[in-house]
Amino acid sequence: MTVCVLGAGGWGTALAAMLGQHGQPSVLWARRPEVATRLQQERENRDYLPGVPLPAAVGVTADLTAATAGQDWALLMVPSVGIPELLTALPRTLGVVLCAKGLAPDGDRLTTLAARLGFGRVAVLSGPNHAEEIGRGLPAATVVASADAGFAAGVQAALMTPSFRVYTSGDVAGVELGGVLKNVIALAAGLIDGLALGDNAKAAIITRGLLEMGRYLSSQGADAATVYGLSGLGDLVATAGSLHSRNRAAGEAIARGQSPAQGGKVVEGIRTAGLLEHWATEHGQDLPIVRAVAQVVSGELTPQQGVADLMGRRGRAE
Ligand SMILES: NC(=O)c1ccc[n+]([C@@H]2O[C@H](COP(=O)([O-])OP(=O)(O)OC[C@H]3O[C@@H](n4cnc5c(N)ncnc54)[C@H](O)[C@@H]3O)[C@@H](O)[C@H]2O)c1
Ligand SMILES: O=P(O)(O)OC[C@H](O)CO
Question: Where does sn-glycerol 3-phosphate bind (predicted)?
Fold first, then answer.
């Protein structure tokens, strides 16, 4: 079978390349025709994943109908802002695997949006998966979660290779939200790096950030234990300490008074921080690190004020 990969940014390109390295054919859909033409000619995605050759087993197209024709399911690998439009354009009989680590415009989960739009088979794929490493064939593990265990098992079987280990889960909310929240905590870790506040501060932000992630997961009906798996703690470790991470790098840039933009590549945590802060305020929930990050990225607080706010909270039990 040919794996259908919708989205030719860093993540979609890396996954298709990795599958191709192991002889698994795929079709990679790029939204912009000129990008598809360049990928076909250069056999490399120089804008989003330079240095990773596209194996011959990767077919490239800008025609969404052609990409999904005859497919049983597809991986949706565009940023979260593009997911509503992409879902709307897809046949509802297609199984959809949401791979973006962000939320819908109204703050809903993307899998919830897909179900609301009438898709019957919905899954999420999330884990510590830097495109830059997966595209080079370095070993990595991930989780595919779905309420439909058979669908999750089918996706697992199609994506497993000697360099990519796929676990299944039934906790869709838990797996999905781990990837969403870790981006905000990675932004906080980047702020710590940019302010040169040291290893102790970074460890504190990661640990208390994990607690906040778990608190939010539980509030959304997820299994509290999922936050300690690959899609939670695993991805937080991979992102908050990584030189590849755009979220961590964006935080570092803000702390240095620079633009958080990452060369046109998506920084999901910036939008997510605002959506989660809004939710926390509306529901009277305590997500102090999320709130501090949202206020810093919106310019309401300086990075130093954000740190002072967190350090100045009243004493409490751990
Ligand atoms: N890069 C990674 O290592 C990685 C790993 C796992 C998950 N993710 C997640 O996958 C998603 C995509 O990330 P990426 O790294 O591939 O992004 P990217 O910034 O590398 O590329 C984004 C791609 O999506 C396209 N795009 C932008 N807006 C679009 C829209 N409205 N509709 C369709 N296409 C659109 C862009 O043209 C570009 O090709 C994000 O949610 C990210 O958090 C990324
Ligand atoms: O570069 P980031 O910060 O978007 O992180 C990429 C992946 O989500 C890591 O698992």
Answer: 101, 127, 182, 235, 245-247
Contact in structure between 252 and 244 (CB atoms under 8 Å): no
pLDDT at 193: 98
DSSP letter string, 113-144: HHHHTT-SSEEEEESS--HHHHTTT--EEEEE
- DSSP annotation of 263: T
> For the chain, how big is the Rg over CA atoms in Å?
19
Binding-site members for sn-glycerol 3-phosphate are: 101, 127, 182, 235, 245-247
Residues in the chain, total: 318
ipTM, 2 dp:
0.98
- Ligand 2 binding residues, C-beta < 6 A: 101, 128-130, 183, 186, 235, 238-239, 244-247
> What's the pLDDT at 32?
98
CA end-to-end span of the chain: 50
Cβ atoms 42, 57 nearer than 8 A? no
The string of pLDDT tens digits covering residues 83-111 is 999 999 999 999 999 999 999 999 999 99
pTM exceeds 0.90: yes
Cβ atoms of 123 and 155 within 8 Å: the answer is yes
- The residues of the chain scoring below 50 in pLDDT are none
**Letter for the amino acid at 193?**
D
